[in-house]
Amino acid sequence: MRNVTNEEAGAEYEKYSSRVTEDDVGDILSKEKDVMNKAHGPLAKFVEDIKLLFALVKDYANGSYRKLPWTTIAGIIGALIYIFSPIDLIPDIIPVIGLVDDAAVLAFCLKCVHVDLQNYKKWKQS
After folding, report:
1. How far is the C-alpha of 103 from the C-alpha of 125, rounded, in Å?
2. Residues 45, 14, 92, 100: what is their CA dihedral angle, to the nearest 10 degrees?
3. Roughly how many angstroms between the first and final C-alpha of the chain, as a whole number?
């Protein structure tokens, strides 16, 4: 099985998140079910994280939570778009192995947005 390095995951995360626009906010929300359907194999351990990321994007989109920089939203949306996209470092058509890079990019994203995600969780619980 091919491993994805942290550098490769970071490069893909940066590439996808740097292209995100406000239009992508609504677009990714319309693909939530498709992204969640891919949450198996290497992505299975991230199901709750993916749900939390979608909740944050929804709260951002409806204006109820804006206490984070655009770079955080762009990073989250970029990572979710990466998961949705079937053509990436390891094509998703390859069973199980095709999701290894998706999991690596998502893990990299979670590390990058950790503080903002924790702040969002606290806000959501209050």
Report:
1. 27
2. -40
3. 43
Region of residue 87 (left: phi > 0; alpha: psi -120 to 50; beta: else)? beta
Residue 42 in tokens: 């290497």
**pLDDT of 14 strictly over 80:** yes
Q: Are 17 and 81 in contact (CB under 8 A)?
A: no
pLDDT digits (tens, 9 = 90+) for 100-109: 999 999 999 9
pTM of the model: 0.95
Average pLDDT over residues 50-73: 97
Alpha-carbon 57 to chain mean position: 10
Mean pLDDT along residues 69-89: 96
55-64 contacts, C-beta under 8 A, 24 or more apart: 55/124, 56/117, 56/120, 57/25, 57/28, 57/29, 58/29, 59/120, 59/124, 60/25, 61/25, 61/26, 61/29
Average pLDDT, the chain: 95
Q: Following DSSP, what letter does each residue of 17-41 receive, concatenated?
A: HTT--HHHHHHHHTTHHHHHHT-SG
